[in-house]
C-alpha cells in the first residue's frame, strides 16, 4: 500500500500537478500534526471554490471589470502557490496577463482551463489522501549512502583533502545558502529522493557531529568525494575508501544497538535502503590520467578489477545486514565538461571513446548485480541507469528547460572540481544555475539532480517493498 501511495504522489509531480512547495508542506507534518497537509489542502479547495464562484459571477455580468478579476486571480494564484498547485498556478498567471491586456475572450478561455485543472487536482489529491490514510502512518525506511562526491554530504569536511565543497559558491542554492560539503549548488539527487520518500531531514554525514543519538535512526551517509571502487586512488586522494566506509557502517550498527537494542538495530539495517554511487572518479580522475594504470591495464581489464571490488563491497554490507541495495551506473563520462576539456581534443560534442567505456562497464555492473541477486535469495539489488537520463539532458537540454550542457556554472565550467578551481574567486560563475545541466565540470546542478532523482525513484520502487 505504501508503495502505491508513493507511486501516486510521484505521478502528481511527474505530470506537473504539484511542485516542491507541496514537499515543503509535508516537511511540516509530524506526529503531532499527522493530517496537516490534507487539512491545508482542504482549506485551499474551500477558499478557491469561493474565488471560482466570485469570478464566475463577475464574468457573467457581461461588462468585464478587469481590475476586480485580476484581484480575485491574484488571491487564487497566491493560495495555489502556497500548496504547490503548479498547473493551477500557471493558469492563474495566464489569466492575469489577459486581464492586463483587456482580453475578455482570453480570460474566458483560460478560466475554463483553470477550472478543469483545479477539479482534476482536487480529485487526484482526494484519492491520494484516501490511500494514504488506508496505508496508515508512514514508516520511512532509513537510508545508508556509500560512494563518492556525487552523494557525499560533508564527510570530506572532516578530512585533510583537497576534495572538499564546504565553501562558496557550493551550496549557494541550498537551505540557508549554506555550503555543506555537497558538490552542487543545492540538493543532490539523493536529497531529493529522500524528500520524496518522506524524510523531513537528511541522514547525516557519518563523520559529522550530527551523526549521533536518535539522528542515527534515519540512517547515515558514509560517502566521500574522490573515493570509488579503487581503494588505492581513494587513499591517495585522502578520501574514505570503500572498505573503510564498510567499517564505519559496522561501527554505525554497534552505535545503533546501544540506542535501539540488538533486535531493533537488525530490523533497521535490514529495512534500510542502501545507495552506492561510484566509478566515475575511478575512470575520469584516475585511470585515464594515470600512465601507471592505462599502460598496464586495458580499460576492459581495469573495469573488471573495479567490478570485483563492487561485488566484494556488496558481500560485505550484506554480511552487516543490508538487504536492499541500489547502485548507480556510470554516467556518460565522455559528456562531463572536464572530460571534454581533458580528453576531447578536437572532437565535437561528447568524447565517444569514454562513453563507450562507460556503457561497457555498465554491462559488467548489471551482470555482476544479477549474479549477486541469484547468490543471495533475500537480497534486493537494483542498478540505477543514470547514463540514459543524463545523456538525454546533455543531448537535448532545451527539452527540459536548460540552455547549457557543455560546461558547468562554476568558473569557466570546464575544469573546476576542487577548492583550487571552484571557489568564491572563480571568474565567470553563472548567475542562474537552473539553466545549466552541470554545476561544476563534473557534478550535475540541482536542477539536473531533480530529473535524475525522478529516474532513481522510478527505477527503485522494488526497494521500497
Automatic annotation (TrEMBL):
This protein's UniProt keywords: Cytokinin signaling pathway, Phosphoprotein, Signal, Two-component regulatory system
HPt domain location: 33-128
GO cellular component: a single term: cytosol
Residue numbers bearing the Phosphohistidine modification: 74
Xref: Pfam families: Hpt, Lipase_GDSL
Any Gene Ontology biological process: cytokinin-activated signaling pathway
Subcellular location: Cytoplasm, Cytosol
Major localization class: cytoplasm
MF-aspect GO terms: hydrolase activity, acting on ester bonds
Family named by the database record: Belongs to the 'GDSL' lipolytic enzyme family.
Name this polypeptide is given: (thale cress) hypothetical protein
Source species of the chain: Arabidopsis thaliana (Mouse-ear cress)
Amino acid at each position: 500500500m505504501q508503495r502505491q501511495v508513493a507511486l501516486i504522489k510521484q505521478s502528481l509531480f511527474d505530470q506537473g500537478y504539484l511542485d516542491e512547495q507541496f514537499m515543503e508542506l509535508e516537511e511540516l507534518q509530524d506526529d503531532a500534526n499527522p493530517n496537516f497537509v490534507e487539512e491545508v489542502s482542504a482549506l485551499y479547495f474551500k477558499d478557491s471554490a469561493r474565488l471560482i464562484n466570485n469570478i464566475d459571477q463577475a464574468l457573467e455580468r457581461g461588462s468585464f471589470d478587469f481590475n476586480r478579476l485580476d484581484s480575485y486571480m491574484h488571491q487564487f494564484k497566491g493560495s495555489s502557490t502556497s500548496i504547490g498547485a503548479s498547473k493551477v498556478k500557471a493558469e492563474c498567471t495566464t489569466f492575469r496577463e489577459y486581464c492586463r491586456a483587456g482580453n475578455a475572450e482570453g480570460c474566458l478561455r483560460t478560466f475554463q482551463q483553470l477550472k478543469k485543472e483545479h477539479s482534476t487536482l482536487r480529485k487526484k489529491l482526494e484519492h491520494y489522501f484516501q490511500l494514504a490514510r488506508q496505508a496508515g502512518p508512514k514508516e520511512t525506511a532509513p537510508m545508508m549512502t556509500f560512494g563518492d562526491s556525487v552523494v557525499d554530504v560533508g564527510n570530506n569536511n572532516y578530512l585533510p583533502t583537497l576534495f572538499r565543497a564546504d565553501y562558496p559558491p557550493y551550496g549557494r542554492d541550498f537551505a540557508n545558502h549554506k555550503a555543506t560539503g555537497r558538490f552542487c549548488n543545492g540538493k543532490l539527487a539523493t536529497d531529493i529522493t529522500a524528500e520524496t520518500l518522506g524524510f523531513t531531514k537528511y541522514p547525516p554525514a557519518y563523520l559529522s557531529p550530527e551523526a549521533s543519538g536518535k539522528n542515527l535512526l534515519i540512517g547515515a551517509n558514509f560517502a566521500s568525494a574522490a573515493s570509488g571502487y579503487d581503494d588505492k586512488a581513494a587513499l591517495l586522494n585522502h578520501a574514505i575508501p570503500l572498505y573503510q566506509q564498510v567499517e564505519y557502517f559496522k561501527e554505525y550498527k554497534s552505535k545503533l544497538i546501544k540506542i535501539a537494542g540488538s533486535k531493533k538495530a537488525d530490523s533497521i539495517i535490514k529495512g534500510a535502503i542502501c545507495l552506492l554511487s561510484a566509478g566515475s572518479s575511478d575512470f575520469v580522475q584516475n585511470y585515464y590520467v594515470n600512465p601507471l594504470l592505462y599502460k598496464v591495464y586495458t580499460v576492459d581489464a581495469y573495469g573488471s578489477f573495479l567490478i570485483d571490488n563492487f561485488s566484494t563491497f556488496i558481500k560485505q554490507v550484506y554480511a552487516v545486514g543490508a538487504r536492499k541495495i541500489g547502485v548507480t551506473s556510470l554516467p556518460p563520462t565522455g559528456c562531463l565538461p572536464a572530460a571534454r576539456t581533458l580528453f576531447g581534443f578536437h572532437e565535437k560534442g561528447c568524447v565517444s571513446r569514454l562513453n563507450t567505456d562507460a556503457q561497457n562497464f555498465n554491462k559488467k555492473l548489471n551482470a555482476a548485480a544479477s549474479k549477486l541477486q541469484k547468490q543471495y535469495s533475500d537480497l534486493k539489488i537494483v542498478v540505477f541507469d543514470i547514463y540514459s537520463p543524463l545523456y538525454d539532458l546533455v543531448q537535448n537540454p532545451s527539452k527540459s528547460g536548460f540552455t547549457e550542457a557543455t560546461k558547468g556554472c562554476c568558473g569557466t565550467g570546464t575544469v573546476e572540481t576542487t577548492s583550487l578551481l571552484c571557489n568564491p574567486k572563480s571568474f565567470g560563475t553563472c548567475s542562474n544555475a537552473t539553466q545549466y545541466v552541470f554545476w561544476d565540470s563534473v557534478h550535475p546542478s540541482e536542477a539536473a539532480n531533480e530529473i535524475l532523482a525522478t529516474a532513481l525513484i522510478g527505477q527503485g520502487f522494488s526497494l521500497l517493498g
